[in-house]
Inverse folding.
């Protein structure tokens, strides 16, 4: 038992967990034909079958039941405000499965030249709203209300000690739906993690319909026709959003140190968090001189890299690897799209730079609160 | 858009002619581009300005002219009130601050232990701050050297006021491990 | 063509209208911003800034002048230049070192980084090792890793430190080169510091002294909309958490913004600036950060009242001092009273009222003379008799007891006295009940006569027996006058020929503590006076008049003097006869208030005249509340008749009935109170255009009945101040004067001291000794004018000052002395009377007052022991001998050598009376303890060479010679050894009788030089 | 011969019923059923007829409907809570205790809080479903954007409500959350570029003049923050979200109802 807990604890270390997710993700949600080939070869498509649903759900439940026997796991999972997130794990899995299941089914139908499940013959296949829809909705609401009452009776809303501005709890966590942002704070300065990236998420989400000019797959579940867009959305939603929230909620403990789900939250736990900036790498390690006094001179390398990343990389990609996409989307769409994408990619990039080289900032100008 | 989605509505022609009161004037007036643009654009310009005024008002409304917050800055007398090499305890109780003067100048240390937030004591004989809770020790500079404290004590912003008095601003903290003690306002040169 | 567009309006016209309305709207917005930006307090801040700039400029100019005339400054300047040149010449050297440092620093940076990484890893390893010890993980590998990393970290640290050491050395080298430059700079800095600070300040406030960008910022920071960021002109405020403004449902922390306009209020240097800029008077006591009332903790409206949140002259509820000021304000500032705010600012003349909120127990007389005077009036005038006022529960009734009135005076005098007391004694506290505004009409006047007859009859009917002793003889009036002038009677009484003080003060009222001793012939008889002064308590057990231990002859002489004057005008007044018909009306009124008409008739028919008078008298005494001030039989348990005043000033103003005066009086509480005290019955009246009054329709028993005290303007100010201080504000204990043992003892002691008028004779901490001028005039009479002008002489004949009494005397002795006063200074004529009515408990309270006031906490003294064969004692003997203490002091029954004029206390008394520590203090500098005393500091030979001391003063003194303290202690110890009879009064009496005082007439230089 | 009508039926055909429910009667014919939807101010949010998959839970997951329903639950329970809750630092916390301890059906607080969590989740899942069915494609692009704004507003509503209990959980969550605003470029006092907005010695973006200040009404979380969040939570954000919701629903109808395969 203990061995299993240790295994889980070490598997959930961010380096392992994130790397594992990154590698396996695109085989689960293949963005291209190549991935799709492997996806099927590895029989990942079975994941979206009914058996898989049953097995995985049983496993998940078993894991939670097993976990609740552990005091550390129980302490964190049964914290009232964390209960919805446990629920979220089940719900996300279930609905992902549901949509993927239907999508695969529809893909097969299309392949077989049959209409998709959602197909209907206008206006013959229409049904009346009264009473069919209204009634279904009504029953839904009643059941849901009943569920809400049961939830409320069963689980008291949290109320901790009265507010005390001079006594900060360790760790201090933002509301759970912002924990993804708080997780990003580890790798980015607040202006990026707290302001720029969230704004880009909102803008990016709003821009989806304008970026995705693929007319296929409107109004029914499908995967085949929308491989790239679904894979990208899934990556953003499941990895950069849900996964980070789960990590932030369950796996971040005192001093924002990382703790496995079965690990005791020891506020004395230490991690070697010494980091260096790119400028220090270059001037101190490479040139063996002190840091130049001039800020611009000091940070010129970082500035060049970032400029290159944002200014040279997109056109370069448009010319080479993403040529097709560029042609299909046109200049305006492509530019916005690619900037959003490479900005989102800075997160994993910075994660790995941190883990591998202890790199803190590529540009570090704390004098003007400008760190990147 | 697919044709199927189009609604089929019949356009019914109005039976009676529309009110004609101004229709003639409308017809007869030569809409010169200039007059059209000048009045309308002027109107919109003014309207946008007024709306801007409204939003400016909204914005300004959220910044009251006085604050009712507890005082976080205090005047700590003149630099001459502090003796070089001494740890001054007079503001410890009221503002949780030690003021220390060395040969170069003056700095203000927070009295909050970086371990669990207890208040250490200054031991003159041993020239160190010793936390009674878990035994963390800090040198006169605030650097931790023993016990569980993970990092040095924090320093507060310290500047001179117009009248030459020392002003301590507790809202701004400087942490040694972040290299902030080099900030000109973390240390008052005398 | 059919108009397909279905239009009605001309679009161009609509465009035009759209443009016009939008422009209008925009303009309105501009107006809105202007309106918000234009705040009433801004002009004051702008003005004050200008003043501050000018003041700073002037200060800088003076500082500059001072510097230029300072020679060290010029010298330092030269020095600085030389140092600069020296450093300049070694520039190359410096550059090399700096380059070296730069290199080293890069090195240290890199090394430090390595060290930091190693250390962080080591810390983790340490944690892991600890965890392993706890049972988590492999202990061996953890330890190995930890040890390994520790070594790495340690070596990394050493490397860092080595380089750091190098840097330090280089830096020191640099420092050495620049040493002289730094020193010169520091010296100049410290000498011109004040100027530099002023210049710095000027750059912050004076646009002309600013850099270009700051000048720009100075404008931008105060433009509309942006003025939230860091405006120069802004609302200032203090928030006081624990003093609350009463919002009826609950208290709300006080917020005062007065300093928004009164910007100089806590800054020195604006004392002469006009309002609202001037400095608050006495910053050491108020507002200053080190004062007992710092602005941040007490705010402004805690004392001044008003609406602290107001930032406008009117909305902050300013109140003018008087009508003239009100008119001026209305003209200049559009001032009007702020309605809908119940606590407007107190006019300056009443501002001391607020002291009472916290200092009710012990009013600081010197800081709040007005309030102290008012409180004295409340006590003397007996306001607390009719009005229940907290804190006066145990204060005795101010008027004389009337239970034995028949032996003291006649019905005739009583009638005339009650009718118009001030016609007989102009400064009496007895108020006028009759012939008032609402009882001046002929009908009322007739009724008045009958009412007074009834009261007098009641009092005399009730009067009990007082057995008077016979006088030994008629007495000598002249002798009596001398006794009255010298014994100390004048501490409490005024006598014929003295004028009332023009400016009333607490001290002047001390001399009116008892009644005037003028024209008593018209009031009473000599035998009563004789009996009264012989033993006042026998006539009135609760009297405050002490026993002066008069001999029978003295009492006879005094009574003879006091009875000798009569008031012929008063005597001539005629007492009208009793008019039974009128009397019946009054009886009917009283009976009618409880009985039916027939019953009234029946009762009336059954009464004879005396019964009627008696009945009415009793009713009237209740009606007018006579028993509130006088002890009257039959009214022992009667309740006060007036409104309770404890929280009078917190009453809503709507609860004060302005009656028909709502147009005549300003609508303020203080004006109402003033009117009420000044003319109590006026609210029964209806003022007319021609300044006459008409009466409201009222039945006689319903009329207002508060009597008229005839107070002057100053007294009215004082009493209104007190009333305005009676508020229900709840003051948190943190803001109150500390209620420690000392302060409690002082408050309790002061109460008794005021009650028995101790300060009529004694001065305590600079307040009191009201008797002093009369001592001088007595001296003038028995000696001459020069003597009377000699302050130290007057003091030597006056009752002692009690400033250091607690430190000075032993409590045991003091208690004995209070119970049985004995002679201390032999030449004194004033006599400490026997206050036989004061209980032991109260005496102890007074003793405790003196002790704790001086920081003495021990109730008992350890006896001070001496050894007669010690060096100290013998040295003391020499010093007293050389100092010739026996010139002035009795040594037991051994008379002083000099004339009685300069006699001091018997030294045989010292050991049981004085405290040894105090005696040394006293010897060290008598003037310090008792300014004006004739006692010289004893000469001790500390400044003389040792040899000559040994020669003239002997070995014992020489041994102690180096330590003046020791010598004084020696003298003190000698004093402790003096023994002999303590009571020398017989010797003194005999001496004075035969030789007198021996005043040295016409010799100003008498005294100190001879010592 | 008049058939004996049931009470219900008689009621349904009476004047009062028919005056309130246009058309009256029990809808039985197809036409009547259509009229029910058309004639009801609430129901005509829906079209009269729908493609058949639109009534299938497997397709819609009912997440949009649940989100709206949760909004209603939050509104009603929120209004009830407002009767007992005072947004001041003295009373906020004790009032929450009293909701649990003595207020009848103080469970409304639980309903409100869990409803808020649930609403965040349902909105996410709604968005997920819409994406998976490609329902954001023309002509529904704009409505998707509105939906994203609604998502943002939902988060903000939850965020502002989080502070109101004024306990440690509340203020520290909001402290962490609002501290990010410090770093807003140019507008936050610790944001990049803020230091450039200065003239001479005067900084124009300071702790008392930046966007975080506008949000929390002070330099630290305090009385003003509580009041601001309360007003935003109870009036400001609901007002805005209702406007966007109206547009969202309107556009669903106008863009052709639920998306369908071409």
């Amino acid at each position: 038992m203990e061995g299993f807990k240790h295994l889980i604890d070490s598997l959930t270390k961010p380096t392992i967990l994130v790397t594992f997710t990154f590698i396996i993700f695109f085989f689960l949600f293949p963005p291209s034909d190549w991935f799709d080939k492997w996806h099927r070869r590895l029989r990942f498509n079975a994941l979206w079958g009914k058996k898989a649903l049953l097995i995985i759900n049983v496993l998940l439940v078993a894991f939670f039941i097993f976990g609740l026997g552990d005091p550390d796991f129980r302490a964190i999972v049964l914290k009232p405000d964390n209960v919805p997130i446990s629920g979220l794990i089940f719900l996300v899995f279930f609905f992902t499965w549901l949509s993927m299941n239907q999508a695969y089914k529809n893909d097969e139908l299309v392949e077989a030249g049959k209409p998709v499940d959602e197909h209907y013959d206008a206006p013959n296949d229409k049904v009346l709203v009264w009473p069919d829809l209204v009634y279904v909705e009504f029953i839904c609401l009643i059941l849901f209300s009943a569920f809400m009452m049961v939830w409320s009776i069963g689980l008291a809303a949290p109320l901790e000690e009265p507010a005390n501005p001079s006594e900060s709890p360790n760790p201090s966590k933002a509301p759970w739906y912002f924990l993804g942002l708080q997780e990003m704070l580890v790798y980015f300065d607040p202006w990026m993690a707290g302001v720029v990236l969230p704004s880009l998420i909102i803008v990016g989400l709003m821009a989806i319909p304008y970026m995705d000019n693929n007319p296929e797959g409107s109004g029914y579940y499908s995967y085949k026709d929308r491989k790239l867009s679904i894979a990208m959305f899934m990556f953003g939603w499941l990895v950069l959003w849900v996964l980070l929230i789960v990590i932030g909620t369950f796996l971040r403990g005192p001093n924002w140190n990382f703790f496995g789900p079965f690990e005791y939250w020891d506020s004395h736990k230490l991690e070697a968090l010494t980091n260096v900036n790119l400028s220090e790498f270059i001037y101190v390690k490479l040139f063996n001189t002190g840091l130049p006094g001039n800020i611009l001179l000091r940070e010129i390398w970082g500035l060049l890299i970032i400029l290159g990343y944002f200014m040279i990389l997109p056109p370069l990609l448009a010319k080479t690897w993403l040529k097709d996409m560029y042609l299909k989307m046109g200049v305006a769409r492509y530019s916005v799209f690619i900037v959003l994408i490479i900005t989102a990619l800075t997160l994993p990039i910075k994660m790995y730079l941190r883990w591998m080289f202890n790199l803190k900032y590529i540009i570090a100008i704390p004098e003007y609160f400008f760190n990147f | 858009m697919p044709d199927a989605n189009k609604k089929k509505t019949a356009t019914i022609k109005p039976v009676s002619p529309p009110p004609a009161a101004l229709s003639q004037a409308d017809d007869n007036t030569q809409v010169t581009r200039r007059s059209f643009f000048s009045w309308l654009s002027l109107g919109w310009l003014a309207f946008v300005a007024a709306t801007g005024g409204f939003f400016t008002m909204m914005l300004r409304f959220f910044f009251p002219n006085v604050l009712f917050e507890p005082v976080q800055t205090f005047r700590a007398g003149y630099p001459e009130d502090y003796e070089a090499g001494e740890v001054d305890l007079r503001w410890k109780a009221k503002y949780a601050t030690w003021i220390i003067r060395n040969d170069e100048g003056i700095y203000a240390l927070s009295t909050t232990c970086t371990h669990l937030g207890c208040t250490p004591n200054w031991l003159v004989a041993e020239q160190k701050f010793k936390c009674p809770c878990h035994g963390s020790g800090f040198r006169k500079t605030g650097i931790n050297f023993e016990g569980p404290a993970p990092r040095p004590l924090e320093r507060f912003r310290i500047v001179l006021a117009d009248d030459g008095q020392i002003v301590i601003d507790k809202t701004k903290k400087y942490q040694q491990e972040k290299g902030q003690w080099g900030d000109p306002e973390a240390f008052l040169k005398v | 063509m059919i108009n397909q567009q279905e239009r009605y309006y001309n679009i161009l016209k609509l465009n035009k209208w759209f443009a016009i309305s939008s422009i209008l709207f925009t303009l309105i917005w501009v107006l809105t911003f202007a309106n918000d930006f234009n705040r009433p307090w801004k002009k004051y801040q702008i003005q004050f800034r200008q003043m501050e700039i000018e003041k700073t400029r002037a200060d800088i100019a003076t500082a500059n002048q001072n510097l230029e005339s300072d020679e060290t400054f010029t010298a330092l300047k030269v020095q600085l230049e030389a140092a600069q040149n020296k450093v300049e010449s070694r520039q190359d050297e410096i550059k090399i070192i700096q380059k070296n440092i730069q290199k080293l620093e890069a090195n240290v940076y890199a090394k430090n980084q390595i060290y930091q990484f190693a250390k962080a890893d080591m810390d983790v390893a340490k944690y892991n090792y600890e965890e392993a010890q706890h049972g988590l993980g492999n202990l061996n590998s953890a330890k190995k890793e930890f040890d390994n990393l520790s070594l790495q970290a340690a070596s990394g640290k050493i490397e860092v430190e080595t380089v750091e050491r190098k840097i330090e050395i280089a830096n020191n080298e640099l420092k050495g080169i620049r040493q002289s430059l730094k020193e010169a700079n520091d010296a100049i800095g410290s000498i011109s510091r004040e100027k530099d600070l002023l210049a710095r300040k000027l750059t912050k406030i004076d646009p002309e002294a600013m850099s270009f960008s700051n000048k720009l910022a100075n404008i931008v920071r105060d433009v509309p909309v942006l003025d939230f960021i860091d405006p120069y002109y802004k609302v200032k405020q203090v928030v006081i958490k624990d003093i609350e403004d009463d919002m009826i449902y609950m208290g709300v922390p006080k917020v005062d913004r007065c300093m928004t306009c009164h910007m100089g209020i806590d800054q020195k240097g604006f004392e002469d600036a006009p309002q609202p800029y001037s400095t608050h008077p006495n910053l050491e006591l108020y507002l200053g950060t080190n004062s007992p009332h710092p602005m941040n903790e007490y705010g402004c409206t805690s004392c001044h009242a008003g609406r602290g949140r107001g930032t406008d002259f009117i909305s902050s509820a300013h109140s003018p001092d008087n009508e003239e000021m009100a008119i001026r304000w209305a003209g200049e500032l559009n001032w009007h009273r702020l309605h809908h705010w119940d606590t407007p600012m107190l006019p300056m003349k009443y501002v001391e009222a607020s002291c009472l909120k916290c200092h009710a127990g012990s009013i600081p007389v010197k800081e709040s003379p007005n309030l102290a005077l008012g409180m004295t009036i409340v006590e003397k005038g007996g306001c607390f008799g009719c009005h229940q006022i907290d804190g006066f529960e145990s204060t005795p009734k101010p008027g004389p007891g009337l239970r034995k009135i028949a032996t003291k005076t006649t019905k005739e005098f009583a009638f005339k006295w009650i009718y118009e007391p001030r016609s007989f004694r102009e400064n009496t506290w007895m108020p006028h009940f009759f012939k008032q505004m609402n009882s001046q009409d002929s009908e009322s006047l007739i009724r008045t006569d009958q009412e007074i007859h009834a009261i007098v009859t009641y009092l005399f009917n009730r009067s009990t027996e007082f057995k008077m002793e016979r006088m030994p003889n008629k007495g000598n009036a002249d002798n009596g006058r001398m006794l009255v002038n010298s014994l100390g009677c004048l501490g409490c009484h005024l006598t014929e020929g003295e004028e009332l003080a023009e400016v009333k003060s607490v001290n002047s009222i001390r001399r009116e503590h008892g009644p005037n001793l003028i024209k008593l012939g018209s009031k009473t008889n000599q035998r009563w006076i004789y009996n009264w002064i012989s033993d006042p308590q026998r006539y009135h057990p609760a009297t405050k008049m002490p026993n002066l231990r008069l001999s029978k002859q003295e009492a006879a002489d005094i009574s003879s003097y006091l009875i000798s004057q009569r008031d012929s005008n008063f005597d001539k007044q005629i007492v009208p006869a009793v008019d039974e018909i009128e009397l019946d009306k009054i009886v009917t009124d009283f009976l009618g208030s409880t009985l039916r008409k027939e019953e009234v008739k029946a009762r009336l028919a059954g009464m004879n005249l005396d019964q009627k008078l008696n009945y009415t008298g009793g009713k009237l005494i209740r009606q007018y509340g006579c028993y509130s001030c006088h002890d009257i039989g039959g009214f022992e348990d009667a309740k006060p008749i007036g409104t309770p005043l404890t929280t009078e000033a917190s009453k809503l103003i709507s609860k004060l009935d302005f009656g028909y005066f709502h147009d005549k009086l300003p609508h303020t509480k203080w004006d109402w109170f003033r009117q009420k005290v000044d003319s109590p019955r006026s609210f029964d009246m209806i003022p007319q255009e021609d300044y006459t009054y008409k009466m409201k329709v009222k039945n006689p028993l319903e009329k207002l009945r508060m009597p008229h005290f005839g107070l002057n303007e100053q007294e009215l100010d004082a009493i209104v101040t007190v009333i305005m201080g009676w508020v229900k504000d709840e003051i948190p204990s943190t803001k109150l004067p500390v209620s420690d043992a000392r302060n409690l003892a002082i408050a309790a002691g002061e109460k008794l001291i005021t009650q028995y008028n101790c300060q009529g004779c004694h001065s305590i901490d600079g307040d009191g000794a009201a008797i002093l001028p009369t001592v001088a005039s007595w001296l003038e009479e028995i000696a001459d004018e020069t003597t009377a002008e000699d302050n130290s002489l007057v003091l030597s004949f006056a009752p002692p000052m009690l400033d250091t009494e607690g430190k000075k005397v032993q409590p045991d002795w003091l208690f004995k002395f209070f119970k049985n006063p004995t002679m201390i200074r032999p030449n004194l004529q004033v006599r400490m009377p026997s206050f036989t009515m004061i209980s032991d408990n109260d005496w102890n309270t007074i003793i405790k007052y003196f002790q704790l006031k001086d920081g003495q906490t021990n109730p008992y003294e350890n006896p001070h022991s001496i050894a007669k064969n010690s060096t100290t004692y013998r040295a003391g003997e020499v010093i007293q001998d050389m100092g010739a203490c026996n010139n002035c002091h009795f040594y037991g029954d051994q008379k002083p050598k000099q004339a009685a004029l300069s006699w001091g206390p018997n030294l045989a008394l010292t050991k049981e009376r004085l405290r040894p520590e105090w005696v040394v203090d006293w010897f060290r500098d008598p003037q310090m303890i008792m300014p004006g005393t004739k006692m010289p500091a004893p000469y001790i030979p500390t400044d003389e060479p040792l040899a000559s001391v040994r020669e003239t003063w002997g070995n014992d003194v020489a041994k102690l010679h180096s330590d003046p303290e020791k010598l004084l202690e020696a003298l003190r110890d000698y004093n402790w050894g003096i023994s002999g009879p303590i009571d020398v009064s017989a010797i003194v009496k005999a001496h004075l009788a035969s030789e007198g005082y021996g005043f040295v007439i016409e010799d100003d230089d008498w005294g100190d030089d001879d010592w | 011969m008049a058939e004996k009508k049931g009470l219900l039926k008689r009621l349904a055909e009476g004047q009062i019923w028919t005056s309130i429910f246009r058309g009256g009667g029990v809808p039985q014919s197809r036409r009547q059923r259509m009229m029910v939807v058309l004639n009801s101010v609430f129901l005509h949010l829906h079209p009269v007829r729908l493609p058949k998959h639109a009534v299938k839970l497997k397709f819609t997951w009912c997440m949009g409907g649940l989100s709206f329903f949760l909004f209603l639950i939050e509104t009603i329970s929120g209004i009830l809570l407002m009767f007992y809750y005072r947004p001041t630092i003295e009373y906020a916390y004790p009032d929450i205790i009293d909701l649990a301890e003595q207020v009848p059906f103080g469970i409304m607080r639980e309903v409100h809080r869990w409803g808020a969590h649930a609403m965040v989740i349902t909105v996410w899942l709604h968005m997920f479903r819409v994406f998976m069915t490609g329902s954001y494609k023309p002509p529904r692009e704009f409505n998707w954007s509105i939906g994203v704004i609604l998502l943002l507003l939902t988060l903000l509503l939850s965020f502002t409500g989080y502070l109101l209990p004024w306990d440690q959980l509340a203020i520290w969550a909001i402290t962490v959350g609002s501290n990010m605003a410090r770093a807003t470029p140019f507008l936050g006092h610790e944001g990049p570029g803020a230091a450039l907005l200065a003239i001479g010695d005067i900084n124009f973006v300071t702790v008392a003049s930046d966007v975080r200040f506008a949000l929390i009404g002070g330099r630290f979380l305090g009385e003003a923050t509580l009041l601001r969040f309360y007003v935003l939570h109870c009036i400001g954000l609901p007002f805005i979200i209702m406007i966007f919701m109206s547009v969202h629903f309107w556009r669903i109808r106008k863009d052709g109802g639920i998306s369908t395969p071409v």
